[in-house]
Amino acid sequence: DSELEKLMITAIASDSRGNLWVATSEGLFFYDTQYHRTKIEHVPAVRSVFVDRNDTVWLGTYNSGLYRCQNGELSRFSRADGLASDSVLCFAESGDGSLWIGTSDGLTQLSDLTFPTLSLADGLVHESALCVAPATDGGLWVGTPEGLSFFRDGHFSNFGTAKVDGFTSPWIKRIRPLKNGDLLLFGAKKNIDLFSAGKVTATWQ
């Protein structure tokens, strides 16, 4: 699609049928398996797209909350529904089917359309959850501007604050869990850190 060359792409995801969902500076586009494009109207400023195990599409926006696209129908959820913030940054799905939503004001767990929220007061290292990823052995990793948080059994453990534990940068932009339980952390200093057994053991610039 030559039109995409003119646009900034903020997020992209595919569903199990091979359809693509592309968020751009000019709105959200849907491409079928033949790459025919349809613009999804009435969804403002999408910054993150996630397809869960049931092929439900979740859209995080800059200031307009969370949208769910299911069976061709759009539903919107906002802070008024219990979401931590209307600025949605990222998504992850854990083994129990919960959807974890990182926002600019905390981490929200979505389960059966309830929105319990975890924040600084609960032990999260910083109020902004920039990225989230399920741990291979259970629990959830959360990347923030002030380090890395791990949540399991109702408790947080924190790493990397004030550049301890060998972190190159406390600002964690993306988390990639590895099969052996280690993590690749993508930081703000054009770095990739290997996190293993509670500390960074290698760094690539």
Q: What would you call the structural class?
A: mainly beta
Radius of gyration: 17 Å
- Chain-averaged pLDDT: 91
Helix content: under 10%
Characterize the overall form.
globular
By DSSP (H or I, 4+ residues per run), the number of helices equals 0
**Percent of residues in beta strands:** over 45%
Low-confidence stretches: none
Number of strands: 20
Q: Which strand order does the major sheet show?
A: 1-2-3-4
Order of helices and strands: EEEEEEEEEEEEEEEEEEEE
Strand count, sense and closure of the main sheet?
Answer: 4 strands, antiparallel
What is the rounded distance between the termini?
33 Å
Description of the molecule:
The protein is mainly beta. The protein is built from no helices and 20 strands.
Please tag this protein with its features.
20 strands, 205 residues, mainly beta, four-stranded antiparallel sheet
